[in-house]
Write a structure and sequence with these properties.
Blueprint (H helix, E strand, L loop, with lengths): L4 H12 L5 E4 L6 H4 L9 E9 L6 E7 L6 H7 L6 E2 L2 H8 L19 E6 L7 E4 L6 E6 H11 L3 E4 L13
Parallel strand pairs: 2-6, 3-5, 5-8
Antiparallel strand pairs: 1-7, 2-3, 2-4, 6-7
């Protein structure tokens, strides 16, 4: 399968940042359920990525969780003191992350040149050695060390926070 331009850009950026990765090809997947059919490709954390916006549409969040982790958007909105959170439209997804539905990942943050998207990482991802993410296309998965994912976010200038989604109440400051 040929490397598409959106993916080629990410591969080039990762090489420039000296971030090693393993690349796994698979048929196109649009949902977490479809992607889990190929979960045996790598042993790292399998993640889902939710691109959210607040009700006024002024704040955008990329929430990165393990596939088995649930998130209560109402509690998350209260924690961020924002209007109701909902999934962003396809137009916003492309505007901020340069991707289409089914290909959302932290690597899309290279298109967020104004650093408007706040990334929220589930704390349990940090417990894994590696994690897999789409390289801005849904026909491949890149596996990187979790420490390199954090380095990618830092080098890209992307604001991020780590949050413990297992907490019942977000009223305590779960951000790192």
């Amino acid at each position: 399968m040929p490397v598409l331009p959106a993916e080629a850009r990410i591969l080039e950026i990762l090489k420039t940042m000296n971030i090693p990765f393993e690349r796994f090809e698979h048929p196109p997947v649009a949902t977490v359920q479809e992607a889990e059919k190929y979960s045996d490709l790598h042993s790292g954390a399998h993640c889902k990525n939710l691109f959210l916006r607040d009700k006024p549409g002024r704040k955008h969040y990329l929430v990165v969780l393990r596939v088995e982790t649930d998130v209560d958007l109402t509690k998350l909105a209260r924690y961020f003191h924002s209007g109701r959170l909902s999934f962003a439209s396809n137009e916003r997804l492309f505007k901020y992350l340069g991707v289409l539905p089914g290909a959302v990942s932290p690597f899309g943050l290279v298109f967020d040149t104004n650093h408007e998207v706040i990334t929220v990482l589930d704390k349990t991802i940090l417990d894994a050695e590696t994690a897999g993410f789409h390289p801005n296309v849904n026909t491949a998965t890149l596996v990187v060390r979790v420490t390199d994912l954090l380095r990618f976010l830092d080098l890209n200038g992307s604001p991020y926070r780590v949050m413990d989604f297992s907490q019942e109440d977000f009223s305590e400051d779960p951000l790192y």
